[in-house]
Hints:
Structural class: alpha/beta
Distance between the termini: 26 Å
Order of helices and strands: HHHEEHEEHEHEHEH
Number of helices: 8
Radius of gyration: 17 Å
Largest sheet: 7 strands, mixed
Number of domains: 1
Amino acid sequence: SQVLRLERNRRTGVVFPLQKLARYLAPGVDTTRFGLFQPGLAALQSAEALFRSGRHHAIDYVSSAVRMDHVPPPALPEVCFIGRSNVGKSSLIRALFSLSPEVEVRVSKTPGHTKKMNFFKVGKYFTLVDMPGYGYRAPRDFVEMVEAYLQERHNLKRTFLLVDGVVGLQKTDHIAVEMLEEFGLPYVMVLTKIDRASRGLLLKNVLEIQEFVKAKTQGCFPQLFLVSSLEFSGVHLLRCFVAHVTGNLPTVKAG
């Protein structure tokens, strides 16, 4: 709520980091994909309320699973977060739930800390799933676990594919994209750790990934989401998009 009261320029930098970055592009560069999902203050505040627990709105860790016969029943709309080990996935989920500090999201400095699918229930509205990281130190049964989940979880509304904003798309990320494309699932790319990248490097990675999404993907939402779990930039917008794709903010226009 403090961020939403900031004067417009400062607020844009925190809430819409991609739009802030667009100011430094050369004239003539197409920026239509930078602002496809651009909610107003009312939508941002509604989404923030969803991520704040209360007496009649509990946000809880539900359970963990390594096989599909152990996952909770698919009663609510669901989103899942996947990405390379050490991409900052658990840190981002903790930032999303920062308004509800009682929700325990374990964050480790050791890559590959998440070995199971961890389910978090957001009231009666949706479920958020923290998936194991792929690549370095991935669980031995990662492929079987994740492929089975993606193919069988019929209440899955959107997959959030996290990419390191400093190093850009890696070989393992391309494999994850191929898997999501093969399964015909709608997904979104989220660039993490943007506070660690220089403006020039971040712009380079954004433009390269955006071009890749435009040329090589069918199921990826055309707008990238930029986040810093440390500085909190982009977190409000991502909350709003999660609320939207799970059907809890129907008035916001987006694909």
